[in-house]
Inverse folding.
């Protein structure tokens, strides 16, 4: 009897120890998962800001002055690889405000756009990362918040649905005719100011943003304003929106009923 009692005690003790061990493993696993998931609200993009300041600078490319990206150096920068990895650990549903959501996805689009070039560098155009049957915009660009994302998804399914047409001068598709990559990361506390400044700077570029021909009574606009004109309709249309970012004289000419609108050729060469 004594022997059987001891055996029962040992069995119970082992059973209890097994339960405790499993509980410990479960708790440790949960802690590790929680530690690896970074709220978007805490994603300040300071590392992206530092990378921009290190690898982006004004330069003429194909005769156009742009903020050019040194993709060769960016490719070899370990901090860029760490940033890409960090994007995957974000919790998408933790973003609480409209501004923070815009900031996160604008910066993320620009990071993944650069990644598409970096991953295949050297290439002449970001379009070379895709093909006719599989455009670069529809190819997996990187994992964000635990999901593989494409540039099309971020632009069309997320950003364009946020009713902010100025995104089109903030997101950069790694091409010469795109709006310039801003020389700082976008932040929620300065977003409105940054978007207004981006619009002004883009329109000041006669090679790729806007050019007036008074003699012909014609304004030449970036093709971006043609491709995404529907996004400006809720604000009065493309010309109405643009008129807020140019001089009163140009705005008056632009809003003339007799003005003709043409669109500038788009240079898809890499912006670096």
């Amino acid at each position: 009897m004594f022997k059987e009692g001891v055996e029962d005690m040992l069995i119970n003790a082992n059973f209890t120890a097994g339960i405790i061990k499993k509980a410990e493993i479960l708790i440790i696993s949960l802690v590790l998962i929680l530690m690896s998931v970074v709220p978007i609200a805490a994603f300040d993009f300071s590392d992206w800001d530092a990378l921009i300041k290190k690898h982006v600078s004004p330069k003429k490319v194909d005769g156009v002055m742009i903020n050019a990206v040194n993709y060769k150096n960016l490719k070899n920068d370990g901090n860029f690889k760490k940033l890409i990895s960090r994007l995957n650990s974000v919790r998408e549903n933790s973003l609480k405000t409209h501004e923070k959501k815009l900031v996160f996805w604008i910066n993320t689009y620009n990071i993944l756009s650069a990644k598409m070039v970096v991953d295949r560098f050297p290439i002449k155009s970001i379009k070379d990362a895709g093909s006719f049957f599989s455009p670069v915009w529809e190819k997996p660009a990187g994992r964000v918040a635990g999901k593989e994302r494409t540039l099309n998804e971020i632009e069309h399914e997320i950003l364009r649905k946020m009713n902010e047409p100025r995104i089109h001068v903030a997101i950069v598709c790694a091409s010469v005719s795109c709006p310039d990559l801003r020389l700082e990361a976008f932040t929620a506390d300065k977003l409105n100011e940054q978007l207004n400044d981006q619009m002004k700077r883009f329109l000041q570029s006669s090679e790729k943003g806007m050019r007036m021909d008074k003699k012909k009574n014609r304004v030449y606009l970036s093709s971006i304003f043609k491709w995404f004109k529907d996004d400006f309709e809720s604000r009065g249309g493309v010309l109405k929106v643009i008129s807020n970012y140019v001089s009163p004289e140009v705005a008056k000419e632009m809003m003339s009923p007799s003005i003709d609108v043409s669109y500038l050729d788009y240079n898809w060469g890499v912006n670096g």
In short: Residues 38-263 form one domain. The radius of gyration is 26 Å. The mean pLDDT is 88. Strands lie at 38-39, 56-61, 64-69, 90-91, 140-144, 147-150, 210-213, 218-221, 260-263.
